[in-house]
């Protein structure tokens, strides 16, 4: 290992030297074993944040049942606290992907505010990742490889070994007498990444010995290009009036006309950056959904369906609706104690400001044909009132309606509608979130 390895590691970690904690993702394999050992050695000489380890046990193979004990013994020898998190891996087409998602969900839940999770991916892993994504047809962002740092839960994920080769880590481990576990599934070529690691990349390196260096250098160039595309997207999203809420509801939206003025590549670039924290991005074939939505007639109601929700257009804007938000089922309910907030199943909560109206109250939802008697205006169709208030059609089935017997007293989001002159109450709604749970 190069003599300057420790200084390179500390230079990378410098921005997080004052973090509340450094938590090491310890699998028991070579890279995470070396990372934890090295940080403990440095901590004996320098002030570092508190160091602990997290081991995620997937329970996918019998041999893996011994790994938590191995990791615990290693941590005990270093005087490092360790936490074991057991996860359930969902069955699916890609066991690798399901295990990774379960693992990172566990890591995200384990991180406190501002804490850092350090993982041991190295330079060879980066080259493997770039090749894997290349064969899957990834774009600039995918081919930039694994990010050295990114947000994770309430903290941040750090990969401080991305500049180090596996061979260097192995020399360090042998020099310090470290032992590590080998996952037998890594030898199975049925998994795509294993095939790349064991068959493809070694052959490439035999032909081009510096292949790992050149692949990762290309990834660095692409990462820079992705940052430039991000800056372009931010400017375009500002021009498109990007916003995250609408009259108190969490409803991300963009102005369609402003997007449509851009070239198609810039449209897709802006939308990718806008959708990235909201949904898994569509592949090339699914971008036809954007064109259909963009070019639809003004009175049409097209839908662009994605894995984590859907996009709709209304009032000249593109709106994001997450799957949990779309799954709402309206259910009427009595409001027996108006002095207390009323929790609405999957639809937030209602409360009164001021003295509530008398009489038995009930919350219902639109069925069509509702009429509201307004002070000084007479009877008005609720549909017309919602049109006047520019409430998008897709929101209307969620709006709680306050009834007293057959009298419609109030509508959530529209506190200005008054059934009585000088009434002493206002209906307040705390809407639900519109979150896919992505970051």
Automatic annotation (TrEMBL):
Pfam families: ATP_bind_3, TilS, TilS_C
Catalytic activity: cytidine(34) in tRNA(Ile2) + L-lysine + ATP = lysidine(34) in tRNA(Ile2) + AMP + diphosphate + H(+)
GO biological process: tRNA modification
GO cellular component: cytoplasm
EC numbers for this chain: 6.3.4.19
Binding site for ATP: 27-32
Gene3D superfamilies: 1.20.59.20, HUPs (3.40.50.620)
Keyword flag tRNA-binding: no
Locations listed in the record: Cytoplasm
Protein keywords: ATP-binding, Cytoplasm, Ligase, Nucleotide-binding, tRNA processing
Predominant location: cytoplasm
CDD domains: TilS_N (cd01992)
Domain Lysidine-tRNA(Ile) synthetase C-terminal residues, every copy: 361-429
Molecular function as annotated in GO: ATP binding; tRNA(Ile)-lysidine synthase activity
Comment, domains: The N-terminal region contains the highly conserved SGGXDS motif, predicted to be a P-loop motif involved in ATP binding.
Function in brief: Ligates lysine onto the cytidine present at position 34 of the AUA codon-specific tRNA(Ile) that contains the anticodon CAU, in an ATP-dependent manner. Cytidine is converted to lysidine, thus changing the amino acid specificity of the tRNA from methionine to isoleucine.
Similarity comment: Belongs to the tRNA(Ile)-lysidine synthase family.
Classification via HAMAP family: tRNA_Ile_lys_synt
Protein name listed in UniProt: tRNA(Ile)-lysidine synthase
Species assigned in the record: Pseudomonas nicosulfuronedens
UniProt lineage: Bacteria, Pseudomonadati, Pseudomonadota, Gammaproteobacteria, Pseudomonadales
Gene this protein is translated from: tilS
């Amino acid at each position: 290992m190069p003599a300057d390895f420790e200084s390179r590691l500390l230079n990378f970690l410098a921005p997080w030297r004052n973090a509340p904690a450094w938590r090491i993702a310890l699998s028991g394999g070579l890279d995470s074993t070396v990372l934890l050992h090295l940080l403990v050695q440095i901590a004996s000489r320098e002030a570092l944040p508190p160091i602990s380890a997290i081991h995620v046990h997937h329970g996918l193979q019998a041999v893996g049942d011994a790994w938590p004990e191995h990791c615990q013994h290693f941590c005990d020898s270093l005087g490092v606290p360790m936490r074991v998190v057991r996860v359930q891996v969902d069955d699916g087409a890609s066991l690798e992907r399901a295990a990774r998602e379960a693992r990172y969900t566990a890591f995200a839940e384990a991180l406190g505010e501002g804490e850092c999770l350090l993982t041991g991916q190295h330079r060879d892993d980066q080259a493997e990742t770039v090749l894997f994504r290349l064969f899957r047809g990834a774009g600039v962002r995918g081919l930039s490889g694994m990010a050295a740092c990114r947000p994770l839960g309430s903290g941040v994920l750090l990969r401080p070994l991305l500049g180090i080769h596996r061979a260097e880590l192995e020399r360090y481990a042998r020099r310090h007498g470290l032992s590590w576990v080998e996952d037998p599934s890594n030898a199975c070529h049925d998994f795509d990444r294993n095939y790349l690691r064991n068959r493809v990349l070694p052959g490439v390196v035999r032909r081009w010995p510096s292949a790992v260096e050149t692949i990762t250098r290309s990834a660095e160039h692409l990462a820079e290009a992705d940052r430039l595309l991000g800056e372009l997207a931010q400017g375009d999203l500002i021009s498109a009036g990007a916003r995250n809420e609408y009259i108190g509801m969490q409803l991300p939206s963009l102005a369609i006309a402003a997007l449509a003025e851009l070239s198609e590549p810039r449209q897709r670039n802006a939308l990718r950056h806008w959708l990235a924290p909201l949904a898994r991005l569509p592949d090339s074939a699914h971008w036809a959904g954007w064109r259909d939505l963009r070019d639809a007639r003004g009175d049409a109601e097209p839908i662009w369906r994605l894995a984590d929700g859907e996009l709709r257009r209304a009032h000249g804007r593109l709106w994001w609706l997450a799957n949990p938000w779309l799954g709402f089922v309206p259910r009427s309910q009595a409001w027996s104690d108006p002095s207390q907030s009323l929790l609405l199943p999957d639809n937030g909560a209602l409360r009164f400001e001021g003295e509530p109206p008398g009489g038995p109250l009930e919350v219902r939802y639109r069925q069509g044909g509702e009429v509201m008697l307004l002070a000084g205006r007479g009877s008005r169709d609720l549909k017309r009132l919602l049109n006047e208030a520019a409430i998008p059609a897709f929101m209307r089935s969620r709006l709680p309606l306050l009834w007293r017997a057959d009298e419609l007293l109030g509508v959530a989001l529209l506190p200005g509608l008054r059934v009585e002159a000088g009434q002493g109450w206002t209906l307040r709604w705390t809407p639900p979130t519109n979150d896919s749970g992505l970051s």
